[in-house]
Amino acid sequence: MLVVYYSSATENTKKFVEKLGFPAQRIPMRKSEPELVVDEPYVLVCPTYGGGASISHQNTRPVPGQVIRFLNNEHNRSLIRAVISGGNSNFGTDFGKAGDVISQKCGVPYVYRYELLGTEEDVRLVRGGLTDNAESLGLVPETAS
Ligand SMILES: Cc1cc2nc3c(=O)[nH]c(=O)nc-3n(C[C@H](O)[C@H](O)[C@H](O)COP(=O)(O)O)c2cc1C
User: Read out DSSP for 3-26?
Assistant: First the structure.
């Protein structure tokens, strides 16, 4: 079970992913860092950065640029199996919108939406959900099956 995630300098997503306790790889924060290339199926955990685009109409890109870059690599894109998105419910209808966009563009299920660093309940549900559904989601590496 591999988790791939992006997290900005505030590191809310990083803290959430660490609590899950699965092997994890981080998409680099800066364009200048070497790009991440993965070699097994993964669930992507991605924070939303649209700035409430539906209301403000000012930032229409809820998915961080570094995540777009990672997914533009066809090999990386072929291995995504599910998406989880973080956000802030203050953004109303745009809460966790990055997950909707990634799910639609990559054709994978949007399996969970959580706020900021996630609660203990979020961690429990995501851990259980991913573990119980690893096979049906295709999250088991071929070598292990
Ligand atoms: C500039 C900015 C725009 C944001 N836009 C949204 C948004 O449109 N929807 C949402 O749910 N959360 C939004 N958020 C909240 C972040 O997704 C949330 O704080 C997240 O936990 C950040 O994760 P990170 O610390 O790992 O980068 C925004 C945060 C910032 C700073």
Answer: EEE---TT-HHHHHHHHH-S-EEE
Domain total for the chain? 1
What does the pLDDT profile of the chain (145 residues) look like in tens digits?
899 999 999 999 999 999 999 999 999 999 999 999 999 999 999 999 987 766 666 667 899 999 999 999 999 999 999 999 999 999 998 999 999 999 999 999 999 999 999 999 999 999 999 999 999 999 987 765 4
Residue closest via CA to ligand 1's atom 17 equals 87
122 lines ligand 1 (CB under 6 A): no
- Tell whether 39 is covered by a domain: yes
Is residue 135 one of the residues assigned to a domain?
A: no
CATH number for the domain spanning 7: value is 3.40.50.360
- Residue 27 belongs to what domain range? 2-114
Is there an atom of ligand 1 within 6 Å of 66 CB? no
13 lines ligand 1 (CB under 6 A): yes
- Structure-token pair, residue 18: 């660490």
